[in-house]
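Reviewers of the previous submission asked for a worked example of the structure-prediction workflow described in the proposal, so we include one complete record here. The input consisted solely of the amino acid sequence. No template or homolog information was supplied to the procedure at any stage.
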Amino acid sequence: MINKLIAKIRETNAPIVVGLDPMMKFVPAHIQEKAFKEYGETLEGAAEAIWQYNKGIVDAIYDLVPAVKPQIAMYEQFGIPGMTIFKRTVDYCKEKGLVVIGDVKRGDIGSTAEAYAVGHLGKVQVGSKTYCGFDEDFATVNPYLGSDGVKPFLKVCAEEKRGIFVLVKTSNPSSGEFQDRLIDGKPLYEHVGEQVAAWAAGCMPEEGEYSYVGAVIGATYPEQGRIMRKVMPKSFILVPGYGAQGGKGQDLVDFFNDDGLGAIVNSSRGIIAAYQQEKYARFGGENYAEASRAAVLDMKEDISQALESRI
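From that input alone, the workflow returned the following structure tokens.
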């Protein structure tokens, strides 16, 4: 799957992943009104609104980007109807040829970690048959419980040729409370990155330069990105924090390798709620999807110019 992601990045010339992180405050009024008219102001009504909102965005951007990243919590808040829409969104994006990164941040141990790995990336046995659960291509994983929480995912990655992005240095302001603590003279995130590099080396595709095991490092910490790029040469880096959290194209250049690959940059509300920004207000709520497309094109140009300036 990592080779498919790389091929899609090359095809679109856009190392960009769109975060499908819907909240009701992002969904235009006309979509909400139609959903509530059919299902009422219920969880089912909210889920229908989210689905129609997602579908409009995906239809507008699928030809511009290689991947999407639905954040599962945004669907869980609507209970079972929300989870149904999560799965429906995953399936629809894959039908459109997009690589799907499930932003699930699973971090548990033993049989629980095994169940998470199977549910999101693998196949579950039901009698004589097997089924894919949520069927994402990649999943995000929290390693801070230790290797017990990651090894089940490594096993599934090897079996199913799918991938994970392991949290190393996250984009949130308080990440340093724990991740920056010095241990044996190095910050904790660097120790984690070294372990990610070891996992990556042991989980390589038969062909290709990059592992099924990637890392998450926030765009808000470009200096750490520069250091960790060298520590994890075989790992793709998923870079959140662009746009709404303050990251800019110029901050990203050191997350990439000299081949122009090695990183994929996420923007969530900066794209899916673009119509609410002054820059794209001209589109209005009725044309929210066109605003999202314009935001993707602007992001693509910003990153392209930054990478060209490095040459």
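The chain has one domain: 2-310. We consider this example representative of the routine output the project will generate in years two and three.
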